[in-house]
């Protein structure tokens, strides 16, 4: 059914149809028995998939990656689709429009997306306000970043502001220094600035009555030497774990014509082309750390087999984004059913 509907949806500009579909789902949810309708088609019935991680209990290991519900507008509706957790953001201290449109592009031949959204969001305070009103008890992660106009030398302050704004309403945090769409952001993945940022956040965390898990989201384009530095820093700062991985800046091996790719221009590539690279990063981190670092996997997960590949590589949880768009709202139910078997 969804594959037929998808043909119509894919005729509309990606960012526009995203808002149309999500507003439609919100309308259905608000109707009498609306949430029952959503759950009937999408909710996960498989038992035995619960996970305990970071001191949190996940109803199943399949979450929604950051970038889909940037401003926490659809948490209750997404909970009805069976997700074990939802990660909002990336959230910045101040609202910002992001990059110029169009900034989201489909590559159907590759089952992929290219985006250069640029952390468009309404700011940390707005996201926190919505999370306080949510009715579901689904686990929510807060993916945090810096504003575009904040120089890297002052980035720590932006992450601190987001941490404080979301502390009471987020179950865990993800530090995003790996998006390719904010100028110079990836420079924060270098050893010294990253160590400084994470040490500061953990110091703030230690001052709280109840500490929240803080994870680091990394790019799939890091060298093994850079991954070794990441592992060392995560262990030194006692972070809760790693999200692997963000989008890639690589364009290797795509079926989409090179001229089309050149016309689209800059942005992060997600979807099936990232699957192997993401799995390789997860396997490397898991082996080098001797399994001591919990990993949330993201990158090219469309099916139960894709999810199992990530789990076998060393991940504890998985996240979907591009797969959700290509496979439809029943993706969580299908993946969980496959994992259950």
UniProtKB/TrEMBL annotation:
It catalyses: (S)-dihydroorotate + a quinone = orotate + a quinol. SUPFAM superfamilies: FMN-linked oxidoreductases (SSF51395). One of its GO terms (biological process) is 'de novo' pyrimidine nucleobase biosynthetic process. It is an enzyme of class 1 (oxidoreductase). FMN binds at residues 66-70, 90, 143, 176, 217, 245, 271, 300, 321-322. InterPro entries: Aldolase_TIM, DHO_dehydrogenase, Dihydroorotate_DH_1_2, Dihydroorotate_DH_2, Dihydroorotate_DH_cat, Dihydroorotate_DH_CS. Substrate binds at residues 70, 115-119, 176, 181, 246-247. Keywords: Cell membrane, Flavoprotein, FMN, Membrane, Oxidoreductase, Pyrimidine biosynthesis. It is a peripheral membrane protein. The active site is at residue 179. One of its GO terms (molecular function) is dihydroorotate dehydrogenase (quinone) activity. Residues 49-340 form the Dihydroorotate dehydrogenase catalytic domain. Belongs to the dihydroorotate dehydrogenase family. Type 2 subfamily. Catalyzes the conversion of dihydroorotate to orotate with quinone as electron acceptor. NCBIfam families: PRK05286.1-2 (NF003645), PRK05286.2-1 (NF003648), PRK05286.2-5 (NF003652), pyrD_sub2 (TIGR01036). Monomer. This is Dihydroorotate dehydrogenase (quinone). It comes from Chitinophaga eiseniae.
